[in-house]
Amino acid sequence: MKNLIGILALGALGFLVVSHYATDNTFGALATLIQVILFLFLPLTAYLTPTIIAGMRRHRNLLSIFVLNFCLGWTLLGWVISLVWACMATERKMPVAFNDNVTVLRRVS
């Protein structure tokens, strides 16, 4: 999660730097190209943040989260639901009884 925030912040900073140099004729075409790439990259990364988080966490419902995020992410509610789903626990814990009647939790995948 910290890496994603760092990438977004670095991209925004790069966008500002390139925007500053885009007015200079020396770097005009290159700066404009980089500016267009960043202009497309940053919003797409922000839009797909729930899917990226689910992928980084190796969520078992990654495809479902992606479909929800892609289809309904443009609504704020769909984006928030997919973000919450991506941040939820990926493994269930079920009680298991041992011979000495002590109950502990065991991970079930």
SSE string, helices as H and strands as E:
HHHHHEE
Structural class: mainly alpha
Uncertain regions spanning at least 5 consecutive residues: none
In round numbers, the mean pLDDT is 77
Radius of gyration: 21 Å
**Number of self-contained structural domains:** 2
User: Which strand order does the major sheet show?
Assistant: 1-2
Biggest beta sheet summary? 2 strands, antiparallel
| Gap from first CA to last CA | 23 Å
Structure overview:
The model has no long low-confidence stretch (mean pLDDT 77). By secondary structure, the protein is mainly alpha-helical. Strands 1-2 form a two-stranded antiparallel sheet. The two termini are 23 Å apart. The radius of gyration is 21 Å and the shape is elongated. It has 5 helices and 2 strands. The protein folds into 2 domains: 1-47; 60-109, no CATH class. A hairpin with a 5-residue loop joins strand 1 and strand 2 (103-108).
Task: Please summarize what this structure is.
The protein is mainly alpha-helical and 109 residues long.
What descriptors fit this protein?
two-stranded antiparallel sheet, elongated, 109 residues, mainly alpha, 5 helices, 2 strands, 2 domains, 65% helix, single chain
Q: Topology, please?
A:
Elements: H1 2-21, H2 28-47, H3 49-56, H4 62-72, H5 76-87, E1 92-97, E2 103-108
Antiparallel strand pairs: 1-2
Helix pairs in contact: 1-2, 3-4, 3-5, 4-5
